[in-house]
């Protein structure tokens, strides 16, 4: 599932491609994806200008000139492709937004969505999300409090969007490895030194992943050479049984709460 770095990469790329452009045509092949009827979606979106593109947690927010917004959450399997009709991917497209000859294809949104909302509906929908990892108000001290104020495992806390927004399976494991902490540790056992180390590892790992284009492998456009660049830089995620690049011991793959967890039992404590 795309996480903060992947969605930040999408946000920046989308801003360059379609911000300030007018939606000239809409194609809806699955009404559940947009949350309203296909007719209403087309009526409220066609002819509107994309005035701003933002990211919040794992969401992309497209603000229209009318004041309405499109809220995108790709969930598991969702992705986007931008190109002309001759480049249309050979996959089922749930929604297509056209900008003249250029098209933005939304694919794999069986679990994800591109909901059409009013500004007030957007505020309500996002109101329960926790702070962003790069929020200036999120300090090492407040980060420690978020993780340790209730019982639970570190992995569970890091992927809880109500506590910290934007982190999922991949980067929770990568930042725990960078900090030398087992992701299955009880947060009640963590000292301030541990969470401070994890705080800095979180920001470093996420920033590195943003610069490298995240770990998703599906390109945004035929000319896209950035997306997926972080995939080969992952040190533990999805590398179960492979030798740890730091110590050579096999990376452990485990299950916890229905999620995959990857770590090195030698390097992490």
TrEMBL record:
It comes from the Bacteria. Keywords: DNA damage, DNA repair, DNA-binding, Glycosidase, Hydrolase, Lyase, Metal-binding, Multifunctional enzyme, Zinc, Zinc-finger. InterPro entries: FPG_cat, FPG_Glyclase, FPG_N, H2TH_FPG, Ribosomal_uS13-like_H2TH, Znf_DNA_glyclase/AP_lyase, Znf_FPG/IleRS. SMART domains: Fapy_DNA_glyco (SM00898), H2TH (SM01232). The keyword DNA repair applies. Belongs to the FPG family. It catalyses: 2'-deoxyribonucleotide-(2'-deoxyribose 5'-phosphate)-2'-deoxyribonucleotide-DNA = a 3'-end 2'-deoxyribonucleotide-(2,3-dehydro-2,3-deoxyribose 5'-phosphate)-DNA + a 5'-end 5'-phospho-2'-deoxyribonucleoside-DNA + H(+); Hydrolysis of DNA containing ring-opened 7-methylguanine residues, releasing 2,6-diamino-4-hydroxy-5-(N-methyl)formamidopyrimidine. Gene3D superfamilies: 1.10.8.50, MutM-like, N-terminal (3.20.190.10). Monomer. One of its GO terms (biological process) is base-excision repair. It holds the Pfam family H2TH. Its cofactor is Zn(2+). It comes from Alicyclobacillus ferrooxydans. One of its GO terms (molecular function) is double-stranded DNA binding. Residues 235-269 form the FPG-type domain. Residues 2-112 form the Formamidopyrimidine-DNA glycosylase catalytic domain. Its EC number is 3.2.2.23, 4.2.99.18. This is Formamidopyrimidine-DNA glycosylase.
């Amino acid at each position: 599932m795309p996480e903060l770095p992947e969605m930040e990469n999408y946000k920046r790329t989308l801003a360059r491609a379609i911000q300030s452009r007018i939606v000239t045509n809409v194609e809806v092949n699955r009404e559940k994806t947009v949350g309203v009827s296909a007719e209403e979606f087309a009526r409220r979106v066609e002819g509107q200008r994309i005035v701003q593109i933002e990211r919040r947690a794992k969401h992309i927010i497209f603000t229209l000139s009318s004041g309405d917004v499109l809220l995108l959450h790709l969930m598991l399997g969702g992705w986007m492709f931008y190109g002309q009709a001759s480049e249309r991917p050979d996959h089922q497209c749930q929604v297509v937004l056209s900008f003249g000859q250029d098209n933005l294809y939304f694919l794999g949104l069986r679990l994800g969505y591109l909901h059409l909302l009013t500004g007030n509906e957007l505020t309500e929908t996002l109101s329960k999300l926790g702070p962003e990892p790069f929020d200036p108000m999120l300090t090492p001290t407040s980060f420690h409090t978020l993780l340790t104020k209730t019982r639970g495992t570190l992995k569970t806390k890091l992927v809880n969007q109500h506590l910290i927004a934007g982190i999922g399976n991949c980067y929770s494991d990568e930042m725990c490895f960078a900090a030398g902490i087992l992701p299955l540790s009880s947060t009640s056992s963590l000292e301030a030194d541990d969470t401070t180390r994890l705080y800095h590892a979180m920001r470093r790992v996420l920033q590195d992943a943003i610069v490298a284009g995240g770990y998703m492998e599906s390109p945004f456009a035929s000319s896209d050479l950035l997306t997926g660049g972080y995939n080969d830089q992952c040190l533990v995620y999805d590398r179960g049984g492979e030798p740890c690049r730091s110590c050579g011991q096999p990376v452990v793959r485990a299950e916890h709460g229905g999620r995959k967890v990857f770590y090195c039992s030698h390097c992490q404590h």
